# Entry
Amino acid sequence: MPMPIQVMIVDDNPDTLELLREKIDGWGYRVAASSRWLEALEIIRRSRPGVLLLDVMMPEIDGIEAARQLREVDNSEIPVVFVTALSRDDLNERAVEKAAEVLHKPFRNAELRSLLERIIGKPTGGGMNP
Amino acid sequence: MGFGLVFAANLLVLGYSVIVFINVESKALAIEKKWVPATRLVRDATFDLYDIRSNNLGHVIFNQPVALDAFEAGRSLAIQRAAADLTALKMHLAGTGHFQLAEIFESQLREFTRVTDRTIELSREGNKDAARAWVQTQGTLVYDVAAASGRRLLSLVDSEAQRAIVAAQASSGRARTNLVWAAGLTLVWTLVVGTLLSAGLSRPLVQLTEAARKVARGRLTEVAPVEIKDSDEIGVLAEAFNLMIGEIRSTQEGLEELVRKRTAELEKANEDLVRADKHKGQFLAMTTHELRTPLTLILGYGEDLLDGSAGPLNDRQRRFLEKMQISAKTLLDLVNELLDFSRVEAGKMRLAYSAFPVGRLFDDLKDKGSALASMAGAGFRAELNGDSSGMVWADRNRISQVVLNLLANAAKFTPAGGGIDLIFSVEPDRLEVEVGDTGVGIERSAWERIFEAFEQGPAPANPQGTRAGGFGLGLPLARRLAELHAGTLEVTSRPGQGSRFTLRIPRWPANRQDHDLDEGGKAGANANTSHDRRR
# Structure
């Protein structure tokens, strides 16, 4: 059985997705990434990752709406971090749930790393996950 | 019979007044039918023009095919609406002095449509840069001309409508005064006759008098038809009176209908404005989002390259990369400033107020100022006068942003070996923050100009002899943020000797109680939840 996935990344921009994946994978976390929400949803249901990094403005679905469905339909308790290039003011108008974490793009490595360590702890094993 | 003649004359005056009144009202209605819709059509057409442009800009900025289709659909919809609006408008304006301007506006709008056609062609061919250049040069030029015509036409037609309404109201007022006078005269005359005549004759007259009195007092709805079956003069009088009441009532109902219609139109105009405002906000948010996405990649990979996680760098590569990172950060700052500034200008800037001790802000800014000064090779001195545990009620991030901007400017314009200072003064009712430098200084004539946005005057040279770059939005934004806090930002300077910027903000709004200031410990701890606490 493969080692469980720790971090799931969803971003409609393939370049941003790759950037996040490269970084987090490089720090030794096991990562899965997808630019399609439905595909990501399948991975989340199957592998139950420790945290979900979720873009907000996606053509298929609004990230905040996606997180809400995850809570209500799947009854999932996965911690969600919204990774967004929107400003704080614009994001607030979208009624982000109170408990959610927000990482604003562009971010610094230190911000993202400390966020991950706080939510799922230090990396437990790295490597080149597909 | 003398009194019969006088009475008949009196009735004639009354009838004439009623006819004039009705006539004036129907004229007013006709004027409204011409100018009010014309105003709405011009306004709609200018909105359409704005929509064409927004959608065109969107097409050039965004890349997803779904978005492109939506922008194109939005654009052609707006073009269709504009054509329909202008055709209708020309029908309304035919024969007036504004018809020609409407035609000019129409041809300019058509010209702008052709420019956007070309933009989309370029954009669809994948030539985004050319499309962007085209829309920024040719597009802006033509759009500005058309928008100016639209604005001019709107103001002309609108003042025409205002004038027509005022004139109609004035003549309607005169006709109403005449009507009341005529009714009053009838009342007086009827009273005189009533007292003179015998009881048998006076009963119907009393009835009429009562009705006329109600009319004179404006209680029109309470007047019941006067029921007198006699075929003598009194009977005829009663019949005429009833007819008159009927006419007045239907005129009044017409007036009420007119008021209802006008109110509905105003409500619609208001909704349109709200929609346009929202559109503007969304456009702002989307544009910034799209600009930040590539910057995330540049800064993100840059950081990984610099921290060595992608392999070792030689000194030259590191130096080049550091310069690229600094420029990318400068670009990010500019994007953020531009957004903040547009937000303030659009009235959409919301401050996240919290209470915090002055000392904490001071410590934070002291460290950053010291770092900036040492990078510029300048000396740094910071002092705090007054109680450092004194509380302030403000948007801490925004105040910090203002002072940091002043410190960064000081570092930029102060030559190596110069000095920068940061002085906090905690007054009973306000906080003063001064940032001084020994840099190139600013001519007195430019003291106010540096706070104006997109100022075209020459930017002062920094010590390296290069012009200070950027949009010049840092200081205008800083001043607006100070003003949003009900504060001020000012400068004094002597060329060649240095500048001193002073920020003053009230420590709390005038109507705020002291007990609200006791939770400083939590200030700024969580920017997400402290946001909007007050609103």
